[in-house]
Specification:
The protein is of the alpha/beta class. It contains six helices and seven strands. The protein has a single domain, classed as 3-Layer(aba) Sandwich (Glutaredoxin). It has a seven-stranded mixed β-sheet, covered by helices on one side. Strand 6 and strand 7 form a beta hairpin. The N terminus is likely disordered.
């Protein structure tokens, strides 16, 4: 009986550990453009790397990393950038005007809302901001979270 309980505990621990890892392939998702239209995997522009960034407008780390992304935009111009937030639509333009003026109007940057709160259980981020760089075929190339992620991602994007 003790062996069975121990085996169950080990199995649960392994299962929990595996489920806490970021997805190595781009998961299925549906987020929403600021105009309310749905955006899913089928809408991704093909042939480029894809950077997904979960951010919160009130998060200081997100503010710094978004500012850094805007400052180093030239390194990311050939990457599809999808910035996802659970914030209300009215605050999002204020965020970009304050911390990354013009970034949200770049041709390869799309701001999306996670209205159904599916990003966290689907992508399993550890903290804000969380950044996922996927290849054009949907394979995870790099995951970063918190401060300093944009600098580290810039090195991988150029490869």
């Amino acid at each position: 009986m003790k062996f069975r309980n121990l085996l169950l505990i080990v199995l649960l621990a392994v299962t929990f550990q595996l489920s806490a890892q970021q997805p190595t392939l781009l998961p299925q998702f549906t987020f929403y453009r600021l105009d309310g239209k749905a955006f899913s995997n089928a809408d991704i522009k093909q042939g480029k790397k894809n950077l997904f960034i979960l951010f919160d407008c009130t998060c200081e780390h997100c503010q710094r990393e978004t500012k850094m992304l805007n400052a180093s935009y030239a390194q990311f111009k050939d990457v599809n950038i999808y910035m996802i937030t659970m914030d209300e639509a009215y605050i999002i333009p204020q965020f970009f005007d304050s911390y990354a003026k013009g970034l949200n109007s770049k041709p390869n940057v799309l701001i999306l809302q996670d209205k159904k709160r599916m990003f966290i259980p689907t992508f399993l981020p550890k903290q804000y901001p969380s950044m996922y760089l996927y290849s054009s075929t949907g394979k995870l190339l790099m995951y970063q979270s918190g401060d300093g992620g944009i600098k580290k991602l810039a090195k991988v994007v150029g490869k």
